[in-house]
Amino acid sequence: MIQDKVNNFFQFFKLDKYLFFLIVLTLSFGFIILYTASASSEKLLLLQFRNLAIALIVMLVIAQIPPRILKLYSPYLMAIGVILLILVYFFGSYGGGAKRWLDIGIIRFQPSEIMKVIVPIAIASILSEKNIPPRLGPVLLSLLAIFLIGFLIYKQPDLGTAILIVSSGIYVLFFAGVRIQIIKNVWINLSVIFSSILGTLYLAWNYFLLPYQKQRILTMIDPESDPLGSGYHIIQSKIAIGSGGINGKGFGAGSQSQLDFLPEHSTDFIFSVLAEEMGFVGVIFLLFLYGLIIYRSFQISIKSEDNFSKLLGLSLTLVFFTYVAINIAMVAGLVPVVGVPLPLVSYGGSSLLTILAIFGIIMSVNKHKLPGYLKK
User: Residue 218 in contact with residue 225, Cβ under 8 Å?
Assistant: First the structure.
């Protein structure tokens, strides 16, 4: 009887019970980590509970929207997103040394966050036609849209978010079967692509990267060159991760986080807190949960009945994986510090809202089936 009611609940609200359970389990584990990372700060936890309530409502609402509606309105969503980014350029407010926010009095938000969802929707809409891989025209239109959004976000400046959003669009192209073939000969083609990448990196380093962005890259390579300045975050993070060992130092017993040696320990560097206090066992448990979420999301997306839903679900799943991978690589000193929070764990409203919106779309893909005449 109870099981029937539970099944009816998930069926009525278009939720995938397995994915929902995994998300709730990861969020619960995340609150445990956040509790110790925030030194038992009740105010921070209450704020995060508020953020979670809003994000869950958004996920629930989005799960009710059929994918074909998202596809239908994707041009308008993209247009709204571009307008908001342009407004940031002229009227945005500063935060963290960059002009990334729009303040309209009752709410202050970061338009680049919503573009993490809008860009995959728009590109999947452009490429979701009968021809897979798509023709040259839709591919060029997709690339133009992707790099326009990336450029507007780069100018804020927010290079990390720009790269992530460009990547989210490229993922759709990848799953659509787009191949880079400049010359028919495979080896010459690879050589041209590799040379183009090197040339792009040269131009980026000499003409596009700002001094602080270059410093982040140099710090990643050799954090000990400035141990009390730009290298401090990474050095303290590595100490926290390495000192956790197999079982960790114990709940609330991490010296790096509890004594405030580790900066941003409730947001960007919360993974370091986990590694120090719960050790390798805690890390593996969290990675196991992430792995199950990604597996279930891929499973849902692959079974989609139309190209748009399949491309959108697969690309959003890979976006989630990218955020997890970059945060962990960042705190381990393998990539520059770019301010990417750990999904479902780090404190923050915008990132949590974005991630649960992504899962709302994936659940919608699973529960809404297209009429036969609309399937492609």
Answer: yes
